């Protein structure tokens, strides 16, 4: 029986349990609900939980443990001398995986009997043709070692799975019987059900922690593997980014960091003045209808997917810049050789960031107490003087927080720079030249056919970890500043 | 004394006041300028999308009467499907050429074009179109059938104004003579520009045939991604928020969860892609480029958004509702599930839709789990195939097109963006309407 077959039967069993125990409980009190401790539905739910959950949990854990154990066993079965440089263990293992999957398929189709595969003495003639006609393609001809390993794997899996399935159904039936024992009027069903529900809710909340732990751990783990292969001094303090797949690559983050910061700086140069002045105008000067129209319109800019900005940079804004500054262009200068450049990516990214700056600053300016404004007006200051000398200084920490948040967005942005910034890793100052960023390099190192054992691939995890640390740091700092500032006026 | 009081009179503005008023006016203009620049950028972006994308929905078609000659397609004449299958698409090209010549004769159009250039007017997908038609029912051989073929991407580009006779002077893909012929065929109505449903519902095509590429399969891929995101992140997110908001005691553990969630929301999306690659593909061996992996990664990204908005809407349900329910004898759990949650539902739904819209437009993590570089041609037929077989997604497909060299693909990328934005606009409008209709102010 396949995994989802068991799963469906468990679900059916659980629903049956619900109705049976609800019915039985009602019968014990002859349909007089007032004599029950809880409402009838709770007796049913109690039964449903007991029948379903332990069995499903067993199913999941058993499946995980089984796959790990079987993998270990199969690895031991492959003879030492069969593993060579050309055929490392992980390649052989994936071949075994595919072959045993193929055998499973053949059994499902009925072209091969499971007993014949398990019986080690029987020969499997013409297995390759059969597999091919079933649509399973293997990279090379099947060697006897691989075949016997996959047969062993198939046998172990079949054995383990059948035990697992029967055990799960047994557990489920036991749970059901246990819950029937409790289908009496005195049983505090609601309390039991609520305790289980609370446990489930708590588990869901803890998952959030596990995800972030997973993120950090998986990246740290892979990054450590990278630092085991490549000197960390070169990564942090080297000066060249030149990955070559024939060994001897220089992988330093500094040129990438330079490109990232440069482009982010240009983006902030565009977005901060525009965003800040918009926020001031909207909160201090604009009439209600103008505000009601302009604010959501500006915020649309933040809702547009970044791929749109990337395409805009690549096909519209970049060529436009090149038309002005490029070879044979409008201004007759030759400052730009490619339509990808720091300015291309930076300005377009700035467009995207305007609403980030303006919305947050707007909130923060609105949070400045009216009494400060009234005091300033009372002393004869004009509106702009009030903004510049009273409101902005009061709101400054919050605005800095908003800018930091925008900066963290800019540093982690991917699509715009992948399409608009280019791939040159160097310390260049000319904003019309192409530069590359951390995110672009992560994408280029991790696309295509990958082997997770070369420093050229694993460097992406070290880059990702650095990126994660920088953005997280900026974020924590920004949130701290904003919160501190809010407290000041509460 | 009289002099000074005169200069400081309210009716006589002093220089300093003039300066201050000018500064005030300037400041106000800066503000207006900033907003106008922001809105102008929006306008430029929107008009670029519309100007460059709408042409992707139109495509040039050529109508030809094709003789399905027995002498070419079934030399033995016994209508044996296996024999007919042996004739490759290459074998269908002469039939196509004959049909083309026939049309030219019929309308008395003369051309100096050689065979290859003449055939080059029609898309490279045309022979396989006839072949599929013939293999569907071999008895069609011998008949004359009217076909509508796509016109080659370069010719289509000429009709849409992307190329001119001058710009293809040195091109090996198209020539001015071909354009002359097309002009004549346009006049007699053999060639026409029509709405292209295949762009919306069709599959992606290889590098050589931009005219045949469509976003339909990627759309289905995106649909499955969203299905995974919805099924996983909504129950998990709501359950986590209920626990944190209604049951958890304030202690270090819940503080840690809280800080973690708010920081997860700010992690760059590409980092989630790295996680997906390392955990789901490298450790768990889930199949690469599939919607299930993409959906899992996007779920991790959407979860914080849903948790934050759910908590906000749970918080906005006033304590009096809880007190009333508890006072009537409901348990804590009953209060939450029977009273608080239904009242918070519109807010939760709004947050979910917004989170899903973000996930739908996200492309960076999809690049890392292999949803690019893959020509999405097969429409999945079952749900498990939809989840587990490699596919693309709309933003990934757009990126893929943007990288290809032929400008015809750029047009399609912008067209794809229009479709993507229509989806996003619908989702966001739905969220706004939900909020307007069902939001209660207590």
Describe this entry's structure for a reader.
The complex is a heterodimer of chains A (490) and B (442). Chain A has 490 residues and is an all-alpha fold. Chain A has two domains: 3-187, no CATH class; 241-488, MetI-like (MetI-like fold, Orthogonal Bundle). Chain A is built from 17 helices and two strands. Chain A has helices at residues 3-28, 40-77, 89-109, 114-118, 127-133, 144-181, 189-229, 232-237, 254-285, 288-303, 306-325, 342-367, 370-378, 383-412, 415-420, 438-445, 455-488; strands spanning 241-242, 250-251. A two-stranded antiparallel ribbon of chain A has the order 1-2. In chain A, a hairpin with a 7-residue loop joins strand 1 (241-242) and strand 2. The longest helix of chain A has 41 residues, at 189-229. Chain A is flat and about 90 Å long. With 442 residues, chain B is mainly α. Chain B has two domains: 58-195, no CATH class; 216-438, MetI-like fold, CATH 1.10.3720. Chain B contains 20 helices and three strands. A three-stranded antiparallel β-sheet of chain B has the order 2-1-3. In chain B, helix 11 (216-247) runs parallel beside helix 14 (291-315) and helix 19 (394-403) runs antiparallel to helix 20 (407-438). Chain B is extended, with a radius of gyration of 31 Å. The N and C termini of chain B lie far apart (63 Å). Mean pLDDT of chain B is 85; it is low at 1-5. The chains are: A mainly alpha (490), B mainly alpha (442). Chains A and B meet through helix 7, helix 9, helix 10, helix 11 and helix 12 of A and helix 2, helix 11, helix 12, helix 13 and helix 14 of B.
């Amino acid at each position: 029986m396949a995994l989802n077959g068991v799963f469906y039967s468990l679900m059916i069993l659980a629903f049956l349990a619900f109705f049976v125990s609800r019915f039985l409980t009602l019968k014990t009190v002859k349909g007089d609900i007032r004599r029950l401790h809880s409402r009838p539905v709770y007796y049913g739910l109690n039964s449903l939980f007991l029948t379903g959950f332990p069995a499903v949990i067993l199913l999941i854990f058993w499946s995980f443990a089984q796959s790990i154990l079987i993998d270990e066993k199969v690895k031991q079965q492959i003879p030492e001398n069969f593993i060579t440089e050309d055929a490392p263990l992980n390649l052989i293992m994936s071949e075994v995986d595919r072959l045993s999957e193929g055998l499973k398929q053949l059994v499902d189709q009925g072209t091969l009997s499971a007993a014949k595969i398990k019986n080690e003495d029987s020969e499997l003639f013409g297995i390759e043709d059969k597999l091919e006609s079933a649509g399973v393609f293997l990279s090379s001809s099947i060697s006897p070692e691989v075949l016997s390993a996959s047969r062993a794997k198939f046998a172990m899996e079949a054995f383990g799975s059948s035990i697992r399935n029967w055990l799960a159904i047994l557990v489920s039936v036991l749970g059901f019987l246990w819950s029937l024992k409790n289908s009496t009027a005195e049983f505090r069903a609601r309390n039991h059900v609520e305790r289980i529900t609370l446990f489930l809710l708590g588990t869901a909340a803890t998952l959030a922690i596990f995800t972030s732990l997973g993120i950090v751990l998986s990246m740290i783990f892979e990054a450590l593997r990278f630092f085991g292969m490549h000197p960390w001094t070169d990564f942090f303090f080297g000066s060249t980014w030149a990955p070559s797949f024939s060994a001897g690559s220089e992988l330093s983050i500094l040129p990438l960091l330079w490109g990232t910061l440069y482009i982010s700086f240009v983006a902030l140069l565009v977005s901060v003045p525009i965003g800040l002045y918009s926020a001031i105008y909207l909160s201090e000067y604009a009439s209600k209808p103008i505000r009601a129209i302009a604010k959501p319109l500006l915020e649309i800019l933040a809702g547009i997917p970044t791929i749109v900005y990337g395409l805009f940079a690549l096909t519209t804004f970049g060529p436009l810049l090149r038309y002005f500054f490029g070879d044979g262009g409008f201004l007759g200068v030759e400052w730009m050789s490619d339509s990808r450049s720091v300015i291309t990516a930076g300005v377009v990214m700035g467009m995207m960031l305007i609403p980030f700056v303006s919305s947050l600053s707007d909130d923060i300016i609105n949070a400045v107490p009216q009494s400060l404004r009234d005091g300033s007006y009372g002393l004869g200051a004009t509106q702009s003087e009030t903004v510049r000398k009273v409101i902005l200084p009061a709101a400054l920490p919050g605005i800095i927080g908003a800018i930091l948040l925008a900066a963290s967005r800019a540093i982690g942005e991917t699509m715009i720079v992948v399409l608009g910034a280019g791939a040159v890793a160097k310390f260049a100052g000319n904003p019309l030249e192409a530069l590359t960023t951390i995110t672009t390099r992560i994408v280029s190192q991790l696309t295509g056919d990958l082997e997770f054992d070369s420093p050229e691939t694993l460097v992406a995890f070290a880059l990702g970890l650095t990126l994660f640390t920088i953005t997280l740091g900026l974020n924590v700092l920004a949130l701290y500043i904003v919160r501190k500032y809010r407290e000041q006026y509460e | 004394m009289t002099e000074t009081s005169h200069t400081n009179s309210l009716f006589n503005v002093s220089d300093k006041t003039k300066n201050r008023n000018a500064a005030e006016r300037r400041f106000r203009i800066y503000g207006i300028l900033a907003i106008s620049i922001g809105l102008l950028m929006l306008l430029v972006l929107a008009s670029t999308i519309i100007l460059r994308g709408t042409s992707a929905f139109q495509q040039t078609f050529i109508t030809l009467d094709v003789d399905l000659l027995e002498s070419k397609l079934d030399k033995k004449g016994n209508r044996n499907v296996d024999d007919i299958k042996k004739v490759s698409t290459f074998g269908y090209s002469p039939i196509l050429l004959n049909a083309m010549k026939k049309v030219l004769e019929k309308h008395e159009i003369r051309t100096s074009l050689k065979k290859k250039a003449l055939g080059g007017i029609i898309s490279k997908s045309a022979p396989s179109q006839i072949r599929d038609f013939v293999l569907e029912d071999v008895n069609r051989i011998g008949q004359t059938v009217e076909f509508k073929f796509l016109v080659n991407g370069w010719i289509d580009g000429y009709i849409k104004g992307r190329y001119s006779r001058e710009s293809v002077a040195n091109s090996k893909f198209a020539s001015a003579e071909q354009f002359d012929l097309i002009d004549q065929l346009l006049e007699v109505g053999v060639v026409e520009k029509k709405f292209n449903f295949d762009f919306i519902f069709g599959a992606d095509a290889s590098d050589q045939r931009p005219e045949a590429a469509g976003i339909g399969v990627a759309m289905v891929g995106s649909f499955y991604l969203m299905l995974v995101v919805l099924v996983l992140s909504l129950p998990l997110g709501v359950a986590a928020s209920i626990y944190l908001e209604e049951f958890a005691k304030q202690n270090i553990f819940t503080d840690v969860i809280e800080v973690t969630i708010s920081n997860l929301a700010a992690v760059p999306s590409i980092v989630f892609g790295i996680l997906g690659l390392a955990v789901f593909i490298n450790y768990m061996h889930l199949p690469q480029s599939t919607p299930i992996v993409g959906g899992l990664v996007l779920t991790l990204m959407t979860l914080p958004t849903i948790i934050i908005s759910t908590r906000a809407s749970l918080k906005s349900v006033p304590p009096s509702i809880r007190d009333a329910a508890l006072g009537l004898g409901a348990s804590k759990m009953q209060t939450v599930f029977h009273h608080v949650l239904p009242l918070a539902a519109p807010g939760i739904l709004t947050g979910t839709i917004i989170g899903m819209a973000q996930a739908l437009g996200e492309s960076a993590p999809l690049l890392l789990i292999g949803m690019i570089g893959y020509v999405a041609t097969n429409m999945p037929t079952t749900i498990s195939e939809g989840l587990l077989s490699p596919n693309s997604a709309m933003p990934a497909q757009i990126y893929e097109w943007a990288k290809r060299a032929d400008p015809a693909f750029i047009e399609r990328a912008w067209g794809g963006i229009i479709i993507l934005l229509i989806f996003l606009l619908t989702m966001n409008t739905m969220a706004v309407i939900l909020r307007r209709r069902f939001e209660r102010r207590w």
